[in-house]
Specification:
This is Gag-Pol polyprotein. With 228 residues, the chain is mostly helical. The chain contains 12 helices and 2 strands, in the order αααββααααααααα. The longest helix has 18 residues.
Amino acid sequence: MSTQQDIYAAGSESRPPMLNKENYVPWSSRLIRYAKSRQNGKLIHNSILNGPYVRKMIPEPGDANREITVTETFHLQTDDELSDKELNQIEADEQAIQTILLGLPRDIYAAVDSCETAQEIWLRVQQMMKGSDNRIQEKKAKLFNEWETFTSNKGESIESYYHRFLKLMNELKRNKHFLEKITSNLKFLNNLQPEWSRHVTIIHQTKDLHTHDYTQLYDFPKYNQKEV
């Protein structure tokens, strides 16, 4: 991905992140965070996930002076009958639509621009990007295999190993796979190269692997890497 593409994918304070079709899950997380950061962010977020404000049907009482009772009728709530809170939600509904559309590449935009609400756009993009159950299962299997086979490389710096592990853990979390601290800690420590064994033993003896996490454990080998 080019630098320009990186910028579009990440978004900015004034622009939502651009969808990368190969990374729908992180994009959806970033877009929701962007939406929440906007003015009316809570209302925009609500509109995306739960749908827009639906105008009420206001009852109109029948004419009491008529000899024949007229059944009560209704009219759709007018702008003048909207409360300030309802007006704010309607404004946020429009902002929610624009927030998503600005983050879509042209071909995806063309497939959803007929949608009338942000929620409808959101669900359609989700359906398009997540693919079939088989593809989802294949992705999960690939991710689990990467976890099972993850290890350090001979001659690899502790920084490189840590950053690769951090990236893998982040990908697991994005796909809603949450590991216990003890599991991730043991994976991190036990897959270091043999020359780190003394430091790994010290960590086992001095740290509670049930309460610390690998980001804290990393500090010790990083500080002592000159000894390896």
